[in-house]
Amino acid sequence: MDFVEQLKSSVDIVGVVGEYVRLKKSGTQRYMGLCPFHSEKTPSFTVHVVHQFYKCFSCGAGGDVVKFVMEKEGIGFYEALKLLADRYGIPMPKRSQYADEDSKLRGAIFQMHELAQEDFRAHLNSPAGEAARGYLARRGVTPETAEQFGLGYSDRSGRALLRLYEQRNFPAAQMEQAGLVGKRQDGSMYDRFRNRLMFPIHSESGKIIGFGGRALAAEDEPKYLNSPETPIYKKSYVLYNLHRAKEAIRKDDRVILVEGYMDAIGVVAAGFPGVVASCGTSLTAQQVQALKRHTQKIVVNFDPDAPGANAAERSISLLLEEGMQVRIMELDGGLDPDEYCKQRGAAAYQERLEGAKGYFYWLADRARARHDMRTTEGKVAVLQFLMPAVERISDRLERMTIANDVAGYLGVERGMVLDSFRKAVAERREKTLEGSKVVLRHDERMLLNALLAEPEMWSEVIGELKSIETIDSFSSRRIFQAIFALHEAGGRLSFEEVHARLEESDQNLLAQAVLNEDARTSHEEVLAAIESVRRTGEQQRRSQLKTRIHESERAGNREEALRLTGELQGIERAERGRG
Fold this sequence. Notes:
- The structure is a single chain.
- The protein is an alpha+beta fold.
- It is built from 26 helices and 17 strands.
- It has five domains: 3-88, DNA Primase, Chain A; 102-233, DNA primase DNAg catalytic core, N-terminal domain (Alpha-Beta Complex), CATH 3.90.980; 237-355, Dna Topoisomerase Vi A Subunit, Chain: A, domain 2, CATH 3.40.1360.10; 362-428, Pheromone ER-1; 442-578, DNAb Helicase, Chain A (Orthogonal Bundle), CATH 1.10.860.
- It is 54% helix and 11% strand.
- Helix 17 (376-391) crosses helix 19 (414-428).
C-alpha cells in the first residue's frame, strides 16, 4: 500500500477535524459543525466516518484528512503528511519524493523556530537572562509558569541565532524568510530580537510559528516587537494561546479575550485556562472565525484605559457580524487583567467574569456618559450610537428582545427604539440568492451509496447497471460513468477516487448523495433500487414508443406504426413476466 493511503487509513479524520471544529454527531456515520473555511451561523460542514472525507455544503470546501491539515495549517503536502505521521506514530518513508521546494522551505523555517525556542529558553536560564528573570519575578510569573508558556530571552549580542543557523548550514535566504534574522543594507545579517523577553507564538495545532519580544531596556523601541509575516505565520489568522486554550474553551463553552501576552499568561495562571489574546494586531474576522469553531460565547476583557475601551468597542461590531454572543468584562481600580488577578485574586476575577455585561448595556453606558439623556437630542444620539452594533444581529427575535431591553435601560419609549431598528435593518437588509439544487432520485442515491460503501456488491451492481440505458438520463450519470470506468480499469473504488475524477458540479452532487446519507444499504434494498431504475427505463421507453406510434399513424406510415407496436407489446410482456 502506498504510504499516503496507509496514513489516511490509519488516521481518523473525525479526530483530526475535531481538534479545529466543534463537531456534533449527526447519525451513525456523520458529524456536523460550523465550517472552518468561511463564516456561517448554521452548520453545513459534514465529516463522514466511512468515507473519511469532509465537505461544506455552503462554500464547497472538501477533501481528505491531508487536505484538511494543509488548508488549516497553511502548510504543504509533505508537511501535512509529516504532521499526521508524527501525531499518530506512523514512520515516514526515508525518501523525500513527497517534498516540494515550498514544503522544504516551510520545513526549514519550522526547524529554525524550534532551534530559536531552545536557544531562548537556554538564555533565560543562563546568567545572561538575569534581567529577564527579574522582570518575570516582579510581574509575579513563577518559573513553572514561564516553563509552561515556553518563555525565553534573546541574547543582547544580536548574533546568537545567526551563529546557530550558520553552524546548521541554513542558507542566508532561508534565514531571512524565517523572520528571525534581518539583513542590513550592506548585506550583513543580525538577530531580529535582541535583549528581549520572548513569547513563542503557536499555530492552533501547537507548532511554533513566530515570536513576540518585550523590550527589557527603557530605551529599546518598540516595547513589543513581533515576528513579521512569513510562509508559516499570518498574523491576522493567529491568536496567542489558542492551542492550549481550545479544550477549556469547548468545555466552558466560553472564551475570554484579552489584549496582550502577559494578560493571557496571568489569567491562565490564576486558574482560567480558556483565554486568548491577539498577537499585536486589532481583532480580525479570521481570528473570530477561529474562536467560533470552539464556541460562540465570548467575554471581552481588555485593559480599562481609554485605548482598551476603544478597542473593545471596535471589536463588538466584528464579533456580532460573525455571530458571536458578546459580553464585556470590566475591572475596577484601573487594573489590567494580569494585575487584577494578582492583586485581587482568582475569586474576585471570577465574580467580575460572572457579572460581565451584555455588550449593548456596556455600549449604552458609554453613550450615556457622552450625551445628556434628559433631552430628546441626547436620547436620539445614544440610539444612533447603538444602532450599528445592534443592526448586525441577524436573528429578528433577538433584535426585538434587545430593542425592549435598550428601551428600558435608556428610559425611552419602546416604539422609538423599534422604529429606529426597523428602518436601519430595512436599509441594510442583505439579499441572499440561493442557487437551485439538483435533486437526486432515491434509487440514484441508494445505488451510489451501495457502490461506494459495500465492496461485496460491486460486481453484481455494476454488471446490472451497465445494461440499463436509463442511467444515461440521470442527473448523476457522469458519476456512474466514472464508477464504471474506475471498475473496468481495476482501480480502487472509493468515494475519494471517484470524487477526484469528477468536475466540480458533479463532485458537489456526489457529496450531496453520499455524505448526507447515514444508514447502510441492505442487499435487498439495492436489488429493489436496480429494479426501480429498470422500471423507470421501461416506462420512459414505453412513453417514447407510444409517441412515435402516434406520429407514424398521423403520417400514414402504417408499417412503421405496426413495427413499433410490436416492440411496445414485447416490453409489456417482459414486464408482466417479471411482475
